[in-house]
Structure formats: C-alpha cells, structure tokens
Specification:
Homodimer. Helix content is 77%, strand content 0%. The protein has twelve helices and no strands.
Length: 317
C-alpha cells in the first residue's frame, strides 16, 4: 500500500468511529428535543438548545476533520467507501442505546462491509500529484465535471422544491438524496481546500488564489444543506435505515464525481478497477443486508388513534 494511502486509511477508520457514534448521540438529542417541542422533521429547531445534540455535532466535527485530512493524502475512491465502518459503529450502538435490534443477518452485513473495505484498501490507486489550486480549478471546470455539477444542482432543486413538500415525510430518498448529491460536491471542494492548505504549509501559499475561496464557499454551502437534511432524515426515519442508504448513495455519487474530476482510474489496470468496484459492491451488499434486517421506527400514535384505542378498550370492558 502506498504511504499516503496508509495514512489516509488510518484517518478514515478513526473518522468512521467518531461519525458512527455521532449518529446515535444526535438521534438521542433529537428525541429529547422533540419530546418538549416541535420536531426537526416538522421544521422545528429546538434541538439547537439540546446539549446532547451539540455533543453529537462535536463528535461529528472531529470525525469529519479526520476525514478531511484523509482526503489530502488518499484518493476519494479509498477514503469514501471506508465510511461503511461508521455504519457498523452506529448499528452496534443503536442496538444497545436505541433498542434498534441488530439481528444475525445484520452481523453478516457488518462482516461484508469489513471484507469489502479491505478489498478496496488493498487495490486503491495512488493519489495524483497536484502542485497548485489552479490545477484543481482546471479539473473542476472541465466540461464533463461542469455537466455533472449542473445536473446535481438541478436534481437537488427538484427534490427540495417539488418532492420534499409532497413525499419528504414518507420517502427517505428525498432527504437522503439531497444529502448525498450535495455530499459529492462537498467532497470535491473539501479535497481542493485540503490540498490548498497542504501546499500552503509546504511553502507554496494558495491563500491569494480566488479559486481557493470559491471552493470554500461551495463547501460551506453544501455542508449546511447536508446537515439540515440529514437532521430531517434522522428525525423522521430509523437510524439503521438512514445510515446505510445514506452511505450507499453518498459513496456512489462521490466515487462518480471523483472519477470525473480527478480521473482516479487513469492509468489503472482493468483488474485493479474491477477489484475496487467488487469491493464496493460487497460493502454495498453488506449495508443492504444490514438495512433489511433492522426494525422500522415505531410511528407515534395520533390523538385520533389514541381515541380509537380508548374506545375499543371501553367497549371490551
């Protein structure tokens, strides 16, 4: 394994542990906030006053920072799929802390995630050498990536303006779709920022380059959007469902975006590319198995529902 890839691997694993834990901590915070106010899925922001939610946010920030550094040293095709390990962490913690049962097939799903991640790590390509932000800007403004970016923005707008008001409360793909598509653009911007910081620390300052600040603005915008819709997804649907679906979609879009922008597969043999894709499919299979064996969230009983139950009990007595 390349030295940069090894460092990126270690950081990505640490990141997954923190991020997986943050899902559970934030979920607990959202539950506490929802018990005494408007829930996030209904447009409430009471969770901002809940200390436990902020602890979860801090945990996620630590994980994302480690992930940020990992992207500097290793290609996205290596770092992003290792996010599957966060699913294992969240599934195990959800089993003990949220009473979301992890069944035997779920354990098999965890094993598949680990096996697939190992295959990806062993066959991931080396990071391309980049000497300036201007070079990254040239990659970001090539016609193929501009087409991807325009398509991503168009789909997000449709999901937010048309699909969310109609299907947001019943179809998790609306919220997760916004998070995942935005996430792919976030990763590309964050990787550019990370490289700029690395080059600056090495003596080649990139602070004066306007391209650096454009990447910063894009990253901040996408991150804020991601957090908002991730909160809605977590507060509306089961954590064990949100985590694997979010991982699968986010990783797929990120690998696609990275392949288009950074040309990760350039110069790689067919066997290496196939091995990495097989590893990703193994991880994806594991997340789907993990998802299919988990219990759905119990929906709260409405006032009318409680009245019907009460009436039925009275009739029986």
């Amino acid at each position: 394994m390349y030295t940069g890839n090894l460092l990126g691997f270690g950081l990505a694993v640490s990141s997954s542990a923190f991020i997986g834990s943050s899902f559970i901590i934030k979920k607990k915070g959202l539950q506490r906030a929802g018990a005494c106010g408007t829930r996030a899925r209904s447009g409430g922001y009471g969770y901002l006053l809940e200390p436990l939610w902020w602890i979860g946010m801090l945990t996620m920030v630590v994980g994302e920072f480690a992930n940020f550094i990992a992207y500097i040293y290793a290609p996205a095709v290596l770092v992003t799929p290792l996010g599957a390990l966060s699913i294992i962490v969240s599934a195990v913690l959800a089993h003990f802390l949220l009473n979301e049962k992890l069944r035997r097939m779920g354990i098999l799903g965890c094993v598949l995630c680990i096996v697939g991640s190992t295959v990806i790590v062993l066959h991931a390509p080396a990071e391309h050498s980049i000497s300036s932000v201007e070079e990254i800007w040239d990659l970001a403004t090539q016609p193929t990536f501009l087409l991807y970016t325009a398509s991503a923005i168009a789909v997000v707008m449709v999901l937010v303006l048309y699909c969310e008001p109609r299907y947001g409360q019943t179809n998790m793909l609306v919220y997760i779709g916004v998070c995942s598509i935005n996430g792919s653009l976030t990763v590309m911007s964050v990787k550019a920022i990370g490289i700029a910081i690395k080059l600056t620390l090495e003596g080649s300052s990139q602070v004066a380059s306007y391209q650096t600040w454009i990447f910063v603005m894009v990253a901040v915008t996408c991150i804020i959007t991601q957090l908002n819709y991730l909160n809605k997804a977590l507060d509306t649907f089961n954590t064990a469902v949100v985590s694997p679906i979010y991982y699968a979609m986010f990783t797929s879009f990120t690998i696609l975006a990275s392949a288009i922008m950074f040309k990760d597969w350039s110069g790689q043999s067919a066997s290496t590319i196939i091995s990495v894709l097989c590893g990703f499919m193994t991880v994806l299979s594991g997340t789907m198995i993990l998802h299919s064996t988990r219990e759905p969230d119990q929906q709260p009983v409405s006032g009318l529902g409680r009245e019907k139950v009460y009436t039925r009990v009275k009739a029986d007595t």
